[in-house]
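Hallway conversation turned thread

IA: we were arguing at lunch whether anyone had actually written out Retrovirus-related Pol polyprotein from type-2 retrotransposable element R2DM end to end. Turns out nobody had. So, for the record, here is the sequence (1270 residues) and right after it the structure tokens. Reply here if something looks off.
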Amino acid sequence: MQPTVLAAGLGKCNARLPKLRAAGLLLFGLTSFAFVAPAPIRILQVPSKFRQGFRPRLAGQTKEPRRPRMALKAVDGGFDVLTQLLTLSLAMSPAVIYDFLPGPAGIPIPVDDGQDLEAIPSEGEGQDMAVDGADARRGGHKRATDSGAPSPTRARGSGADPGITLAAIRDLLQEQTRSLMDSHQQDLLDLKTATFKELTGIKKDVRKHSDFIEQLRDSQEKMEDRLKNLEQRGQGSVATTTSEAGRPNLMILGGWPQDTQKDTLLGELDGCLHQLNLQGTFEDVFCTGPRRGFAMAFVAMQPSETGVQLKRRMITIAQQIQNANIQAPSMESSRTLKATLGKSKHERLISNHTGKTKRLILTISPTSLGAVETEYSAGNVWFHSKLVASATRPGPHTGCLPGKPERSWLDAVLLAKLLKTTQALAETASCQADPYQMESLSTGVNSDVTADELRAVCKLLPPTLLPVIMLGHFNTKLRWTDALDPQGDLRPTEARSEYVLSELGNVGLQMKAPTKAQWDTPTSRPRRTKVQGHQIDGGAYKNCRLSPLLIEVDSFKQIGGDHDRISCDFPLRTGESTPPPRAITRPRYVTGKLPSLDKVDQKTLQDLAKKCTAPRPGLRYRDPSEVKDLYAKAKQTGAEHDWKVAHKARRKAQEDWRNTRNQRAADGHWQSYRSLKNPGGNEWTVYFVEAAEEAKQEPKRWTVQHFRTLFQKTEPRDPPRWNKDIDTGNHFTIEDLRQALHKGKTNKAVGEDLVSFELISALCEDDATEQALLSWMERLRCGEALPREWLRTVVTLLPKSDKPRGPKDLRPISVGASAAKVFGTMLLRRTRRYIRPAGASQCAHNGRQTADYLHAAIKSFSLDTEWHLGLSWCRIDIQKAFDTLARDRTLQLLRDNLPPEMFLEYRCWERLFYEGTALLKTPWGDEEIPQGRGIRQGSVESPFLFSIAIEMALKTATEHAEWPKTIPSIPDLPLAELLYMDDTLLWAASRDDMITKYNILKAELAKWGLRVNPEKTSYYHSPYSTTPGDITLDGQVIKPATNMTVFGIPLLTPLKPSTLMDTAMSKASKKFYGNRHIFLSRAPLKGKLRTFRTLVGGSALWYCSAVSPSNQALSGMNTLQLELLAKTIGFRRKSDETWLDFRTRSMRGARHVLHSHQMERWSTIWLQRFWDYKGHIARALDRDSPPASSLMDSVRTLEWWTEKQRDGIRHPGQFFPYHTNEEKALNRAAGGTPWRQAARDATRWAQCKETWVNSMDVAWASGRQLAIGP
């Protein structure tokens, strides 16, 4: 049976279709059709609109069944459309098709069941459709064949064949719609592209024609002017044609010195012409510049005078002037008035060729004037009777150098032989004869010629990264706009402007606008009166930063031309490198055996540093010997193959070196790990230079001036005098020296004297030298002058951010002499004994730490959360604290606290505070500046002295009468101020109290030379605050922040303990992924675990002792530890493994490795550290000056709450009592006694740690794993 296919354009159907029956395959489409069939197909033409008789003619071909696509050609209205559509394959048995109606956008939709279509009529039976009547069966009923047997197709297939479904038809129509839409969109895009391309061509043609029309208009105007001049000419008229080509009536009158003023020259020339009675012969006499040695004149043309007659008359006038021998007052004694006829451009080029050749000969051989013969009219030059140059005769051979005039030449070979010199010297001299090689754009031509000339000029520019600047006369009107660039962008006003912009842009050049005030300033100054000039001169640049162009108005008078001069400024490197650094501060190590010394001083140490130490070598890559041999061979042979082999060997060696370094770092080699850190480098200087240019500053001068002002003392120094008894005190002992050496650090930068700490330590290994060094230190304590090198510091600049915007964003770090650090440490150990903490606020003293600061801050937020105190917090930033601290005020603090036996030590501090010199190291060179105030960052004494200075300033402020002493909502709170160095955190009951505290503290800090920076001050208030809103400090409005950041940890009310460690977890993840090349390297697992514990574990747990543990936070820390540890171990997902199975396997494997290597979980470490810190807090409460953490932790404890509950005190709202639960757990771990009482016994407290950990730690596993898997 031949399959029959019915194709109907349902997209245009507006009548209901009956049910159709067909044997074979069937496709519904919108406007095009495609089908496949296993046998030849008989196509029936079915009208899409039955009533109108519209019949598309379809032509197709059979495709293979396995390829469900077919190209089909539909002929509709004379247009051929080729489409490829998806097909819908039906079973070979008769199928049932439901009626469709056209829906939105022409997409057919099913309506309801209709009548079945009887058998399709044969090919000769016509086009009418037979429709069933009453015999019609409903769709979906089983239908038998005409013979009553079941369908063979149904028998061969499965009984579950669904046939055509509504979903399949819908999918087909949607896909066909998408295909058509994509096709139409692509056609529209192609049409749009072609249209724009055509419009661009039309626009270009229109511009060209507009240019032609403009030139024709100009020519017409010129012709009209010439006709008007001819009409005005009559008897005795002196009117001339000023636009005639060549100006044949031009005459040159000269004889004056070269730089004669224009007015003097014209006045004397007028007098000479009166003497010769020739004043009426010339119609115009002028000079081309303010100072010249000649003048130009136009001879008045007579009516009906031909060119030959004019030239004869001009020759006669010139001879008359020459023969008169008239001398003007300004002329030299040997000169008289001369006259010659004006020449054309070609004649001038020929005469210039002659003059330049003559000058060349006399430049090389000044005594050969008598051997030179010239003919200026023909360009011929003879030297020793030999023709060496010409502009009219043919050259003797092809090796002659061409000149500017056409057919001109110079025989450099013959000339060199006659001059007895080399040809290269002769050619060089000939080039030097015209030092300015310029190109000019032709005038009076159309835009195409201008574009071609400009393109030829731009082709001369080779590819380069060097700065390029192009100044010139662009022969077009330049107009500027600030629409795209505030500094000005070229706005093309004619075709020539667009060509200029396009050709310059092709080679990377960018036009630079003048200052905005000169955008309309003309640069051309026509000599004709009442003619306005235009701005046609400009500049372009690339690979450099150009300042706005400056049009020097009226400079044409000085130049002597018809254009004003334009100028610009730009930075240009002259080829000189940055001056070498004055001090090399790299770490040094001892290279040789040191002598035994009986006397030590600064000069001895410096001599030993130069002889016996050297800069420590870096760990950068160096070519091994085999790679060096390969490169030596490649350089010797020059063969391409040898160079490739050498490059390949170097790449492999570099890769091996990197892998080895990563493995060593993973194994715990810290020097290799430090070398892996990204070096600071000078990348920040790029952004700094950009900021300097925006501020119109030179980077080095800007930086030096800033720090000069910063280090300069603001008022004369008045050091406080010692007002106590004078006592020599105690001598330095050998134990003092050894403890100072023990506190020193190795592998650190050295000062300008090159003395390293390694050198001093190595010297002290010898007993005699150690005793000599101690004697020197004692002499310095007793009053010997300090070495000058100790007061000279090398200041290195470190950026505070990745993109500094000025010198304020740079932090100065001082590097001083190592011997001075040893001496300062010995002084500091003695001074610390007598300067005790002034209160609990400063957390930077001995016995205090950052955990105290953080714990006290967290406790203030937890109290506000629990009791709704309505507090406000303010973190104050002190501007340039170390660098601006008043030295005299610090000395006064030392004097008031030191006893009489510390008199000599006080005098030592006084000498160390003398004004010194700072060697400021910048990326642009070094500079010395005086340093009269501040404490040198990097010196051993700077942290201690600064901390006590800030503490005393805060203590004085809190003793002020107006300082808010208590907080009404919690009067038992013992502390409302916190310090860690200069990090100041204040909290108060209201916004007004905070402003009062800020103003008092600001005034007190000013006495110490310190200034508060309100721009970096942050403010936060509780949601329970009675005074919400902004706060105004020093006129600066500060909006409340969403949280208060303390050491990078966001704190806010209500406080959620489970989120306090989120910052630590984030930092641990960053640390791991920042060093993943170490942890994922192929190094031994044991070493990687040790490195993991130090780097990642240290980042995750650095402040855990100050945070109360919670079950959620403990579990989160352990999960993160296992995830990162699984990556370190190297677990990989198998191809047949799901992600859930992989995670289960990797986490269990990481837990197994953690246990087998006896590594503690992060939750365990957290609980251990928290227990130890709690004991420290309880014991520190018994000190004479307890830290802030002890005081804050003793506020509203469990004992207090148990007692106050009897009085009926209740919390103002609901909250989770995690502090109460924490204290109950601590009491249980301490054996039922109050934990603070148990913590006072350190031994008993340590014994209870294991009980605390076992009771609080999360389980190792869920218990669902029965054994350790593979």
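OS: looked through it. The first strand starts at residue 4 and ends at 9.
IA: good, adding that to the notes. The chain has a mean pLDDT of 78.
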